[in-house]
């Protein structure tokens, strides 16, 4: 409808970029971008609902039936500032000029029903050969926008494509420029890499191109041999906290403080940081679980969900101990099925009961409840008010 409306008003318009690429690869298309020789003011007039999303750079968002479509005027970019954004954009009337400024050949494809596919840079051939190749001179592309280096590696991992030799060399040559990119942008690309189906390839390329060195300020040539733990990375559950913890734990040789610093530096949210640190800190907790009460203590400390995540993750990494870990998981399932008391809230006694019956006050209440919980972990049968009050009276000496 958008393309036809522009055409009926004597303008060109094409679907462009990732949506064309993914359609040809039979991948799910999340959104459609449209490029046109109509100026932004014209686009605004031709459609009822629009948002001037990036009017300075020629982009108008057109809303059709509550769906958003970005419509951008053909343009070429002026000088780039800080290896990231053009100082200005110049609108042009030729779509080939517009496509020539794009990052990779497979993203420089355009399509409409009348013309078919426009492919000025052999993107179709590169799709066929499963290659990520820069449009034009690769060094220039990455110097214009250093984030493209991470995008190349991310596309390679997501699509299981190789990075063309000269493009890969250009990433290595310009890897230091990643320091000029915002932490949030780097974080977002890393997250997409870690959660794709082939993260091992992404990590290998990040390492090979020395980008890990510049992102994390770590000497990857001398420190840890973390390649081996990454060999089975693709098998780890697609959970951001789990994959991040595995990546960072070995990157920083188990130094939890450095792991946390790296997460803060890349502006991860507090929940993700907490989850990653919890997983890293309790990475080998399963080795200390010999009795049921040990497992209950761990669950009480980090929660049911986190315990499952750590155990399932270790099930893959420590395959030689898989029977031990499976047994622990089965025990955890048994606890939940039988409503075994694990948390303070599961006790058949409250702080109010301790105040009324034993005249406990302040922090002594919490101390006593935790003493009782530990006893209940050992013997769930005593989890009734009568037995717990008796036990509390006999344990008063422990808090005095």
Spell out the blueprint of helices and strands.
Blueprint: H1 2-8, E1 13-16, H2 18-24, E2 33-36, H3 40-46, E3 50-54, E4 59-64, E5 67-73, E6 75-77, E7 80-81, E8 85-86, E9 89-91, H4 95-100, E10 110-112, E11 116-118, H5 123-128, E12 131-132, H6 138-144, H7 147-159, E13 162-163, H8 165-173, H9 183-194, H10 199-208, H11 211-216, H12 240-251, H13 256-265, H14 270-281, H15 292-302, H16 304-317, H17 322-337, H18 351-358, H19 363-378, H20 385-394
Parallel strand pairs: 2-5, 12-13
Antiparallel strand pairs: 1-2, 1-10, 3-4, 4-5, 6-9, 7-8, 10-11
Give a nutshell description of this structure.
The protein is α+β, with helices and mostly antiparallel strands and 400 residues long.
Question: Would you give an account of this structure?
Answer:
The protein is of the alpha+beta class. Helices cover 50% and strands 12% of the residues. The chain has 20 helices and 13 strands. The protein has helices at residues 2-8, 18-24, 40-46, 95-100, 123-128, 138-144, 147-159, 165-173, 183-194, 199-208, 211-216, 240-251, 256-265, 270-281, 292-302, 304-317, 322-337, 351-358, 363-378, 385-394, and strands at 13-16, 33-36, 50-54, 59-64, 67-73, 75-77, 80-81, 85-86, 89-91, 110-112, 116-118, 131-132, 162-163. It has a seven-stranded mixed beta sheet. It has a two-stranded antiparallel sheet with strand order 6-9. A hairpin with a 2-residue loop joins strand 4 (59-64) and strand 5 (67-73). Helix 12 (240-251) crosses helix 14 (270-281), helix 15 packs across helix 16 (304-317) and helix 16 (304-317) packs antiparallel against helix 17 (322-337). The protein is elongated, with a radius of gyration of 29 Å. The model has no long low-confidence stretch (mean pLDDT 92).
């Amino acid at each position: 409808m958008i393309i036809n409306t522009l055409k009926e008003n004597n303008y060109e318009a094409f679907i462009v970029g990732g949506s064309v690429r993914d359609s040809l690869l039979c991948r799910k298309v999340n959104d459609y971008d449209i490029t046109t020789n109509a100026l932004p003011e014209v686009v605004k007039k031709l459609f009822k609902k629009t948002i001037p999303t990036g009017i300075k750079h020629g982009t108008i968002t057109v809303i059709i039936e509550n769906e958003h479509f970005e419509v951008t005027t053909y343009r070429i970019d002026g000088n780039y500032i800080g290896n990231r954004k053009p100082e200005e954009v110049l609108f042009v009337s030729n779509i080939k000029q517009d496509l020539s400024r794009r990052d990779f050949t497979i993203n420089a494809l355009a399509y409409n029903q009348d013309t078919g596919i426009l492919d000025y840079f052999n993107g179709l051939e590169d799709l066929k050969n499963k290659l990520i190749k820069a449009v034009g001179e690769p060094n220039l592309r990455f110097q214009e926008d250093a984030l493209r280096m991470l995008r190349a590696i991310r596309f390679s991992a997501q699509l299981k494509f190789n990075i063309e030799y000269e493009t890969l060399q250009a990433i290595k040559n310009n890897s230091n420029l990643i320091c000029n990119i915002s932490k949030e942008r780097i974080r977002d690309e890393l997250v997409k890499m870690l959660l794709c189906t082939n993260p091992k390839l992404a990590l290998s390329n990040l390492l090979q191109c020395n980008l890990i060195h510049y992102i994390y300020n770590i000497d990857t040539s001398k420190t840890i041999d973390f390649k081996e733990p990454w060999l089975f990375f693709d098998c780890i559950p697609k959970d951001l906290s789990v994959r991040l913890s595995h990546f960072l734990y070995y990157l920083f040789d188990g130094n939890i403080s450095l792991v946390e610093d790296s997460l803060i530096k890349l502006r991860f949210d507090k929940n993700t940081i907490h989850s990653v640190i919890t997983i890293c800190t309790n990475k080998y907790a399963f080795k200390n679980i010999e009795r049921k009460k040990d497992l209950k203590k761990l669950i009480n400390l980090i929660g049911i969900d986190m315990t499952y995540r750590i155990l399932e993750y270790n099930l893959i990494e420590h395959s030689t101990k898989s029977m031990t870990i499976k047994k622990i998981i089965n025990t955890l399932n048994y606890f939940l099925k039988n409503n075994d008391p694990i948390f303070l809230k599961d006790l058949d006694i409250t702080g109010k009961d301790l105040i009324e019956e034993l005249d406990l006050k302040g922090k002594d209440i919490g101390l006593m409840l935790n003493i009782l919980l530990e006893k209940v972990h050992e013997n769930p049968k005593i989890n009734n008010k009568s037995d717990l009050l008796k036990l509390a009276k006999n344990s008063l000496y422990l808090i005095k």
